[in-house]
Amino acid sequence: MSWAVAILGLAFLFLIHEAGHFFVARALGMRPRRFYLGFPPAIAKTTRNGIEYGIGAIPLGGYVKIPGMHRPAPSDVDAHFAAAVHEAPELVTPVERLKRKLARGEFEPGDEEGRLAECLESVEVSEPARRNAERGLRELADGLGRDAYWRAPVWKRVAVIFAGPGTNLVFAVGLLAVVLMIGVRVATLTVDEVSPGTPADLSGLRAGDRVVAVDGDRVTDFEELFTAVQDSEGAPMVVTVARDGREVALPLQATRYYGANWAIGFRPRARSERRDPLDATATALDRTWEVTKAIGVGFSRLVSSEGREEISSPVGITRVSSQAVEADFRVYLQLLAFISLSLALLNLLPLLPLDGGHIAFSIFEGIRRRAVGREVYERVSIVGIALVLMLFFIGLSNDLGGRGPG
After folding, report:
1. Can you give the pLDDT at residue 406?
2. Residue 53 reports pLDDT greater than 60
3. CA dihedral 25, 26, 27, 29 (to 10 degrees)
4. Which is it for strands 184-194 and 236-243: parallel, antiparallel or unpaired?
5. Distant-in-sequence, close-in-space partners of 316: CB < 8 Å, separation ≥ 6
6. What is d(CA 20, CA 35) in angstroms, rounded to the nearest whole number?
7. Distance (Å, whole) CA 136 – CA 78
8. Residue 23 pLDDT
9. Residue 3, C-beta contacts closer than 8 angstroms, at least 6 positions apart
10. Cα–Cα distance measured from residue 214 to residue 251, given in angstroms and rounded to the nearest whole number
11. What is the DSSP letter of 43?
12. Which residue has the higher pLDDT, 313 or 157?
């Protein structure tokens, strides 16, 4: 059951990401043609009001088809009609007329498309060639339509693309705020349980003790205690606790378990803490910013072996999410918020085909006052796809090898 919840949670994040693109595109006059959870081919689909809704067979994200993402070019015609032209030379003349029109920079619907469509209907070609040619006619109609993405002002294009990661950002902050208002378990300085054989146990720490100082420096919350233990890096330290109305000094040395954080070996007692809506929202924004900075540092460390070992794939993310569901649903909701934030930041990287790459190209096109051809997008996308796949396989290797999260 916990795995199902974790998978549905990830699917929901992809869904709201694509919904951001979808609804903003519609609001700005670009009527999407498709809205998919996952990538085609479709497992199930339906068409309403001219928009195809479906569930894709490739569960790696989502897909919204916005008309005319790229300015039509003669090479697009070649790509879609090459097979049909080879089988039916009668298509050469209408195809060449259409290519010359696009080469002249004429991007208004005209007779050329209609003549090509009529000629295609009258010739005999194989089914694959016909399907590819008909798809080309649809792509061309989208690219020449008044609602084509490439025709829109730069601010509209940026708004449509940013709406996806923007929705994930807003969701992350909103979900964190809701969890804080519901109430979260907060660790206190009171010892709930001491693990046998640990530095805490060997030093004489007992359940019910309350930590008040580390090496003479007073601590007021568990976060300060945690920081002090990490800063010790295993050096001898003195932890002072309040016990039976008096203070007791306990010398000990923190240790590391399985290469994780430094620890002294006790479980703190927790209390429930709720925030009012204003405080919850402010805290959620603050935590979101702190995590954003941490993720930024993580990206900068990808060139190191330690940084690469911190990468996780959907497999590891799902495993950790299912563990969080079993532990405490509020912990899972917080984790889901941070996954949503990570999804937003990853998509904002200036790499095609990620959203950040489309935003960067839209701004570049606005500066040069001329659209970039599809072939340029495709060449640059090869680099971005290679990098994204590399990160995916590194994360998958970490997860299957046991080095990733969880």
Report:
1. 44
2. yes
3. 90
4. unpaired
5. 395, 398, 399, 404, 405, 406
6. 11
7. 9
8. 95
9. 318, 322
10. 10
11. E
12. 157
Distance, C-alpha 373 to centroid of its chain: 27
Alpha-carbon Rg for the chain, nearest whole angstrom, is 28
What proportion of the chain, given as a percentage, has pLDDT over 90? 44
Which token pair is 49?
Answer: 């009001």
User: In the structure encoding, which two tokens stand for residue 322, read together?
Assistant: 């299912």
Contacts of residues 378-382 at CB distance under 8 Å and 24 or more positions apart, as own/partner, are 380/352, 381/352, 381/353, 381/357
Structure tokens belonging to residue 352: 């095609």
How far is 70 from 293, CA to CA, in rounded Å?
A: 34
Partnered with residue 251 across adjacent β-strands are 238
Residues 6+ apart with CB under 8 A from 71: 107, 143, 150, 371, 372, 373, 374
Average pLDDT over the chain reads 85
Output the CA–CA distances (angstroms, integers) from residue 150 to 41, 102, 144, 365, in the order listed: 25, 15, 10, 10
Contact 28, 159 (CB under 8 A): yes
Task: Enumerate long-range contacts of 102-105, CB under 8 Å, 24 or more apart.
Answer: 102/72, 102/73, 102/74, 102/76, 102/77, 103/74
H helices of 68-204, where?
74-87, 92-103, 111-122, 127-144, 154-182, 199-203
> What phi, psi does 151 have (nearest 5°)?
-80, -20
Structure tokens at 337: 């918020």
Kindly state the average pLDDT of the residues 367-388.
Answer: 77
Residue whose C-alpha is closest to residue 176's, from 284, 20, 329: 284
Range of lowest pLDDT (128-142, 196-210, 342-356): 342-356
Assign 405 a pLDDT band (cuts: 50, 70, 90).
very low
Beta strands at 236-243 and 246-253: parallel, antiparallel or unpaired: antiparallel
Contact 34, 65 (CB under 8 A): yes
- What's the pLDDT band for 380 if we cut at 50, 70, 90? confident
Phi, psi of 291, rounded to the nearest 5 degrees: -70, -35
